[in-house]
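Worked Example 4.2. Consider the chain below.
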Amino acid sequence: MAKKTNGIDYSEQTMGKMAALYRMDGKTFKKNIKKIRPRLDKIAGREKYSRLTPIQVELIIAHLGEP
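Applying the procedure from the previous section yields the following structure tokens:
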């Protein structure tokens, strides 16, 4: 079963969906996660990915706070 907190499905997120949850456009969202981007990339094992892992979603929420 997928982890859900406050209605966020941790297993079905993309950068675009996360940006929408935070009510930011994609460019602003990417600026706000720039500091943790190297950690996100390391978790994924690459720099380009379409879906976020639950661990990446947790890291973004820990960095930006609850949407």
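The mean pLDDT is 91. The radius of gyration is 11 Å. Compare this with Example 4.1 before moving on.
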